[in-house]
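Final report, results section. Input specification for complex C-07:
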Amino acid sequence: MTTFSQKSCFIILALIISPSVSATRASKFQAEKPCKRMVLYYHDKLFDGTDKDKANATSATVVNASKLGNSYFGMLVVFNDPITNDDKFHSPPVAKAQGFYFYDRKDTYTAWFAYTLVFNSSEHKGTLNIMGADLMTEKTRDLSVVGGTGDFFMARGIATFQTDTFQGLYYFRLKMDIKLYECY
Amino acid sequence: MTTFSQKSCFIILALIISPSVSATRASKFQAEKPCKRMVLYYHDKLFDGTDKDKANATSATVVNASKLGNSYFGMLVVFNDPITNDDKFHSPPVAKAQGFYFYDRKDTYTAWFAYTLVFNSSEHKGTLNIMGADLMTEKTRDLSVVGGTGDFFMARGIATFQTDTFQGLYYFRLKMDIKLYECY
Amino acid sequence: MTTFSQKSCFIILALIISPSVSATRASKFQAEKPCKRMVLYYHDKLFDGTDKDKANATSATVVNASKLGNSYFGMLVVFNDPITNDDKFHSPPVAKAQGFYFYDRKDTYTAWFAYTLVFNSSEHKGTLNIMGADLMTEKTRDLSVVGGTGDFFMARGIATFQTDTFQGLYYFRLKMDIKLYECY
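Structure output:
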């Protein structure tokens, strides 16, 4: 028995001492298992400049495209967009996305986003802060969730975008698969 | 005694193996006890366009508001604002806040900030990078400290904003309560 | 022997229990040893507005400088800039930097950056998201790597900028020393 307990202690030692230096991260992250996951829909209805669109529009172009290339390079949009649990624009929003995007490629469409998901519902109160490149021509693309507050205190993770539909410049819908890998 | 050491080893096992998967985060965070806290005042003195304001102004509107709504939707301001330890604009600055904000709501005032606190004093050298929504109508609101350099190497935390005073568009002061929960 | 195993168990206890509260961060970070390091060159070739520059330019001014000060305060540039392993503009790019910068000081030159390094090569696939102040008058300055995706899943670290060369406003090259201290 003495031998057993000695051995088991050495096994414990091996288990602990080695990970304590380098594997902190491994224990934090299980790729298959985010600590929190939400699939959300983002609706961007760009203001067309007409009076009758003022009630419905959720975003506005505030900087026009430059003359570089032919794919809106530099056009910058500020948004306050509804976030819903399904793909219906008129579903009750579960959050708002407040932030901006701009187009940033000469020859095809890519964009760059920075925004805050503001939750204020019975289910969640708090924010998630997100930034990254939206490589629109790829089926899915990953942005970074760089911080959170309230229910999402100090969260980090990945926001995977997928274009769900679009109608020219003036309406598009993204499926945002939010996976948090650091939760407090 | 053999039995004791066996038992104690099992207790150790229980203590270690279970937290190693899920509790790393809990040990990192103690809500009541940030590893570093600073209460700072941010002064934004928006350039009014006149020559005599050039010396005092600390920020400038670089993108005008869109025609969407009546609360400056899309107006974007670049700032290089003094940060002081008390609420006096003329106190010696302990840091500069360099970045931008824009207004992003049609029917009331909300803004979105991204900026760097640049410290270069005898007390602190380094930067903190901050982003998030400023829901101005709420008494306090939380943004994310997403990174730091120098004395604040790799820091993360929360920046809680509180409007201390404002004079129309052209001067406002925020109390910024910076709480770091990850310090190296 | 019994005594030994008891002692060794207590030693293990001491090793584990104390760090579990406060030293997670220490084990994550070894200042001398990033978990990943890359020295890269960033080339910004600002569009001069002429037709013949359209092919070469990699960035465009989308917001003109304000009238505050004499150092381009508020001028905002959107870029899609090549990243190379050496300082040659025509070397095959190993990544693209997509994002923006703006100038933000009245009396000298400082800028603020937020961008994504997009890697799509045989060596790396994924992105790094970076933000912070570029205090151009200092020899080196540190920005924050606030997140990553793909090969750089959930990474954090520091991006140290050094001006390698510049030709007025229309071309500059930065050496970007990317040091990741959190890798998964």
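The mean pLDDT of chain B is 87. Chain B touches chain C through 46 residues (CB under 8 Å). This concludes the modelling results for the funded period.
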